[in-house]
Design a protein that fits this description.
The protein is α+β, with helices and mostly antiparallel strands and 456 residues long. The chain contains 18 helices and twelve strands. The longest helix is centred in the middle third of the chain and has 32 residues, at 191-222.
Length: 456
């Protein structure tokens, strides 16, 4: 006898549409997890979705013999902007394998390490900007780090310096927010409402994103270089299996996709600043480690493996913030009969859409003592190694795991260490408590800090 999966009471035809705020979907789902626990379901406009929020069930759904990534909902909607890119391609589209085999060699740990100096130098530019500000100046943590992310990604992958840490915010940042927010909201509305009231802005934001990528592409064509970076690879490499190469539209697709994907990194680091300010003893411990290992010298790649406490800070931030808040799963095609979960405790239909809710997985009380506490030491060394694999899925899973995870990890580490090493920060509003929203990511809302040169 299986246990029924809990579900909030709904209303006829619309189901649970009012249980999820379309302007803050993930926070609504977090509240449902807090109420219903490790697994629950909702129905929206006739479609049933199951959410999973503990480590054991997460690990079970990550078994690729039984389950695979589900491409649906918001992911299908954002195809309007990026077509069949690595993030959005359906399982039966051969383009995914072609694109992956061409791009993946540029995103291995060793390939990513070749960009270390560029990432560090961009982080140093932001630190210098912050050090030069008056102690009375307030900055938006996520706003500043979004600029740094776009600056760094554009330089490392496309060889173009935007110089966007100052001046007007690049239109690409606002367009990404607009397009991804609309992609998340569209499945909750009737198609006619999307077409009549929301299509125009969705198209405008999509065009803005593609214009950014096109400008970077044209800049490279007009300024040839011997850089063997991501853009060079997309322009010149052939798939070793099929001999196919990427056409110009496919290159633009992947350039936009990479920018959207990298936007989780500034969400993570801005959240790290929040957690550190709420736990100042962690700042003290981190700086003791940084000063002991790096001293007054320059951060180099070799130092990253010798900063276990800082590593724990980044991991613990990713655990608590869930900057990439979840991923979609479905049973593999051909699955027969009801699908049993949790050793037979629950069952779902063979074509059931499921979403792994990392806010819940990462707070599983069966794994984490005092799960809401910020404790970097539990995410370092042997303590981290002993954690179940289901609690380490920040970048997704298996074949469709985030292809840029090594770059994102390095960016998070370099940026966090650089700011701790060189900058003092405090909350502009000492009473601020973390509020989040987001679409394909989760970020702090209305979080402002005061920054100045670190006092040593």
């Amino acid at each position: 006898m299986t246990t029924p999966i809990p579900q909030p009471p709904g209303i006829p035809l619309l189901g649970n549409i009012f249980d999820v705020d379309p302007n803050n979907t993930w926070t609504s789902l977090q509240k449902l997890w807090e109420k219903y626990g490790e697994i629950f379901k909702i129905t929206v406009l006739g479609q049933q979705i199951v959410f999973v929020g503990n480590a054991a069930l997460c690990a079970e759904l990550c078994d690729e013999k039984r389950f695979r990534k589900y491409v649906g909902g918001p992911i299908v909607e954002i195809r309007y902007a990026v077509h069949a890119s690595l993030f959005t391609a359906f399982e039966n589209e051969s383009s995914w394998g072609v694109h992956h085999r061409i791009l993946a060699p540029q995103l291995t740990p060793s390939a990513v390490a070749s960009h270390f100096n560029e990432v560090r130098d961009c982080a140093n530019e932001l630190a210098a900007k912050w050090r030069a500000l008056s102690s009375l100046s307030q900055v938006s943590a996520i706003g500043e780090l979004n600029r740094l992310d776009l600056e760094t990604t554009t330089l490392c992958f496309y060889g173009r310096k935007l110089n966007c840490l100052t001046g007007p915010e690049p239109s690409m940042i606002k367009a990404m927010d607009g397009a991804t927010s609309e992609a998340v909201k569209r499945p909750t509305r009737p198609k006619l409402a999307n077409l009549l009231f929301h299509q125009s802005k969705f198209e405008t934001d999509s065009k803005t994103m593609r214009r950014y990528a096109t400008e970077c592409f044209q800049y490279r064509k007009a300024n040839p270089t011997d850089r063997k970076d991501m853009l060079y690879t997309m322009m010149n490499a052939k798939d070793p299996e099929t001999g196919e190469s990427l056409n110009d539209e496919q290159i633009i697709d992947e350039m936009v996709t990479m920018s959207i994907g990298s936007s989780t990194a500034p969400c993570a680091v801005s959240s790290a600043i929040y957690y550190l300010l709420k736990n100042p003893d962690c700042i003290t411990k981190a700086r003791e480690e940084i000063d002991s290992v790096i001293g007054d010298g320059e951060l180099t790649h070799d130092y990253l493996d010798n900063l276990p406490y800082c590593t724990g800070i980044v991991r613990e931030t990713m655990r608590l913030s869930a900057a990439a808040p979840g991923f979609n799963i479905e049973p593999v095609p051909g699955t027969q009969g009801p699908v049993l979960l949790g050793g037979g405790q629950y069952q779902v239909p063979p074509k059931q859409t499921m979403i792994i809710l990392l806010h819940g997985v990462n707070r599983d009380p069966a794994v984490f003592d005092d799960p809401n506490a910020f404790r970097p030491e539990r995410m370092a060394g042997e303590a981290y190694d002993k954690l179940p694999e289901g609690t380490k899925k920040w970048f997704g899973n298996g074949k469709r795991v985030c292809i840029g995870r090594h770059y994102a990890w390095m960016w998070n580490m370099i940026t966090t260490v650089t700011l701790l090493k060189d900058v003092d920060f405090e909350m502009a509003d000492p009473s601020y408590q973390l509020k989040q929203d987001g679409w394909f990511n989760l970020r702090p809302v209305d979080f402002y800090i005061k920054v100045k040169a670190r006092a040593k």
